[in-house]
Amino acid sequence: MTLDILFQMVVSAIWAIAIFAGVANLAGLCTWVERKLSSMIQDRIGPNRANIRLFGTNITAIGLLHPIADAVKMFMKEDFVPAGANRVLHTLGPMICLFIPFIVFCVVPFVGPLHIQWKDIPAESLWLIGSLFPGDALHLSDYTLYLIVADLDMGMLFVFGIASLGVYGVLLAGYASNNKFSFLGALRAANQMIGYEVALGLTAVGIFMVYGSMSLNTIVEQQGRLLFGIIPLWGIFTQFPAFPSDEEAARRIGKGAEKFDHNTVKKFEQLPIKLGKLNPAYFLMIATGEDMAITQIEGSFPQDPITDPELKEEFISKWTAVPDKKFAEWFRQWVKRDQLPDEAMVAIVDWNECMHYLDDSLGFCGFVSSFRGQFGGTTGYHVWNMPQVVTHATGWEFDKDRLWACFQRNRNLIRALNNRLGLRRSWERPPEDHWAVRNEEYEQLLLTKYYDFKGWTFDGIPTKATLEKLSLGYVAEDLIKRGVLTGNEVTALNDPRARKDKQ
What we know:
By secondary structure, this protein is mainly alpha-helical.
C-alpha cells in the first residue's frame, strides 16, 4: 500500500462521514418542511415546540429544532420487540431501510474535482508515516481529488440497484412481527415500491441520452460546461429540445397522428373518443373528484358497444368481473355509444369507484383488476375473488357484499371530510374546454341522479341516514355540529330543487 492509496482512502472515509452527516441533517430539514406543509393543508399549526430558553427569552424557531428533538427521542426510546416476533429480523429490517439511502449517496459527487498543485511530500517528513512507509512519498503535484466516495462508471445503475434493496427492509419488518396485519401492510408497501421503480428508471433514460454516460461524476462534470458559451449544460435546459412534447412529436410524425395527441395537460384524457360529445360516466368521475378511477372505467366497462351479436355474447360469457347481472344486461342492450341510460351510467361509475378504492386498499394494480375487453374479457382480480385474498390474509370471513360495504364506507368518509372543508355542488365541474359539446342542463341532471344514487343531498353531502347506515353516525354528528348538515336532509331527487330535473 502506497501513501497515495492511503491518502485516497482517508479522504474517502472523511468524505463518507461528511456525506452521512449532511444527508442526515438534510433529511431532518426535509421532514420539517413536509410536516409544515401538511399542517398548512390540514389547517393545523404543525411543528412549534422544542423551544430554547436564551437570556430569559423563549425561542421557538418555528419548530426548526423539532428534527433534533425527534432524533434525540428516537435514540432514547426503548428497543421494544413484540412477543412472538423474530428479534434478529425485527432489528435488521429498519437498519436496512436506514442505511440503504446513505450507501446510494456514496456515488454522488456533491462538488466538482479538487485539483492539488502541491509538491511531493516525502514520507520521512510526516510524523509516524516515515517509519511505516520508508522511502515512499505522497505524490500531490498536479493531483486531482474527486470528492466522491466511489466513482463508478455505472454509478446510476448502482443507485437503482442499491435503492431497490430497500424493499427487503420493509418486507423483513412486516415478516418479523409475526402478525398477519403487519405483513399484509408490508406486502402492500413493497408492491408499491417495486411498481415505482419502473417509472423511476424511465425518468433516468433522458439523462443517459443527453450526457452519454451512467457515471454520476461524468454527468456532473458535463453540467459544468456551457452551451454556446451562455447556457449551462444542465438537464433542465438540454432535455427540452432533446425530447419534444407530445404535441410536437405528433406534428413531426404526421400522417394524422395529431388527432391522437390527447396525453397532454390541456386535453387531460388519452383517447379521442372522450373529447367530442359529453361522456356521462367520465363527466361524473372528473367532476366529483374521482378522476383517478378513470383507469378502471377504461377497462371495467367497455368504452364502445360490440355490434356483432355473437361476439357480444362471447364477451359476456367471459366477463367474470361484473358485480351484478344488470351490467351484463345493459351491455347486451347497448347499441349506440351515447345511449346508455342514466341509471346505468351512475351504477357504472359507482362500480369503477369501488374497484379504484379496493385496488388502492389491497395494493393491487388497476391494470390487473380492471382491464378486460382489449385483452380477452378476463381479469386477474375482481370483486368475487378479492374477498378470498382478504380472508386468507386476515382470517376474517369476507364476501363481495362486505367488500362493497367497505368501499362505500371509505368513499362516504372521504366525501364527508371534503364537505366539511367546503366541497359543494358548485365546485364539481370539469374544465370548460374538456369536451367539444357541452350540455349544462344534462350535466346537472347527471349530478343529481349520481348524488341520489349515493344517498347524498342535492348539494352532494352524505345524509345523516346514509352515514348512520354505514356506521358513520359520529361523522353525521360532527357535520351537524359544524352546520354542514341539519339532520333532516333528503337525498337529491327528493329535494324541491330537483323537481325540474325530475320532469
